[in-house]
Amino acid sequence: MLASGDTLHGVNLRVTGRAGSTHVSATIAPLRDGGGEIVGAICSLLRQPDQQLQSDFEDFFTHASVPMHLVGADGRILRANRAELELLGYSPEEYIGRHIATFHADQAALDEILCRLHAGERLEQFPARLRARDGTVKEVLISSSPRFVAGRFSNTRCVTTDVTEQRRLDREARESERLLHELMNALPVAIYTTDADGRITFFNEASAQFAGRRPALGDMWCVTWKLFHPDGRPLPHDQCRWR
Questions:
Q1: pLDDT value at position 126?
Q2: Are 100 and 76 in contact (CB under 8 A)?
Q3: What total number of domains does the chain contain?
Q4: How far apart are CA 47 and CA 45, in angstroms?
Q5: Are 57 and 138 in a shared domain?
Q6: 132: in domain
Q7: How many CB atoms lie within 10 A of CB 151?
Q8: What is the C-alpha separation between 148 and 158, in angstroms, rounded?
Q9: What average pLDDT score do residues 141-156 get?
Q10: 125 and 24 both lie in a single domain
Q11: pTM of whole model > 0.85?
Q12: Is residue 79 helix, strand or coil?
């Protein structure tokens, strides 16, 4: 075929070199002299992906314990692994091929994610909320990196971390702390707390009235003006560890 002047594309070859052999895809074009006669050939080689390596990658992506998915330039989900599908409860047919906006409960967050990725920015642990098949909303952190081909946005590679339970526990802890502070504020006795360095982290109204002044959170503070030694002697302010 080369003798006829045709250029050959996608010729599969096996090339052996010092590092071993590998499969390549070749493009072979005829080389002509000034009179148009074929005097040789120009050959370009493109290394084909190692089949075993490709197989290992496919297995890693499919069976990884971390939820992962790929999103195309049009916002549609190109691929999703088993962990991603199990996290949200969808079958591959219900999830892959649909627009990512279908599953995001916070449109503003999604808009920011896509805008930053299209601008070439890599995202680390970006907070988002995803709709699961059972109607619940999963609170997640998304790490994603964009892929560009020939200078144009091609797709994103995303890793999803489920933090729903951790966020629930955080909210419960904050609510418990709020209720505790309300209780301490209602008590008629002076109560205040500090960190290990003696900086005030909480005080109730009774403690401010007892001390005769109102501190700012983070101040070095102790109520030394009205503290005494066990024998009744006043405790000097300069003897207080957290003055």
A1: 96
A2: yes
A3: 3
A4: 6
A5: yes
A6: yes
A7: 5
A8: 15
A9: 91
A10: no
A11: no
A12: strand
Chain centre to alpha carbon of residue 73: 19
The whole-angstrom separation of Cα 79 and Cα 81 is 7
Q: Are 159 and 144 in contact (CB under 8 A)?
A: yes
Task: Classify residue 198: in a domain, yes or no.
Answer: yes
My answer on whether 215 and 144 are in the same domain is no
Longest dimension (CA), the chain: 118
Tokens read off for 213: 């002044």
Centroid of chain to Cα 237: 50
Q: Are the beta carbons of 157 and 80 closer than 8 angstroms? A: no
Q: Identify which has the larger pLDDT, 95 or 190.
A: 95
Sequence-ordered list of residues with C-beta below 8 angstroms from that of 217, at least 6 positions apart, any chain: 200, 201, 202
CA distance to 75, 110, 239, per residue, from 115 (Å): 11, 8, 59
Lowest model confidence (mean pLDDT) among 4-8, 114-118, 162-166, 207-211: 4-8
Where do we find the tokens 């002509």? 32
Range of the domain at 219: 185-239
What amino acid is encoded at 155 in this protein?
N
Name the residue with tokens 């070199």. Answer: 17
Q: What is the DSSP letter of 49?
A: P
Question: Residue 188 has which token pair?
Answer: 């008629």
Straight-line distance from the first to the last Cα atom of the chain, in angstroms, rounded to the nearest whole number: 94
* Ordered alpha helix ranges (H), the chain: 51-63, 82-88, 92-95, 107-118, 164-186, 205-211
Nearest to 202 by CA among 221, 226, 175: 221
For the chain, what is the mean pLDDT? 84
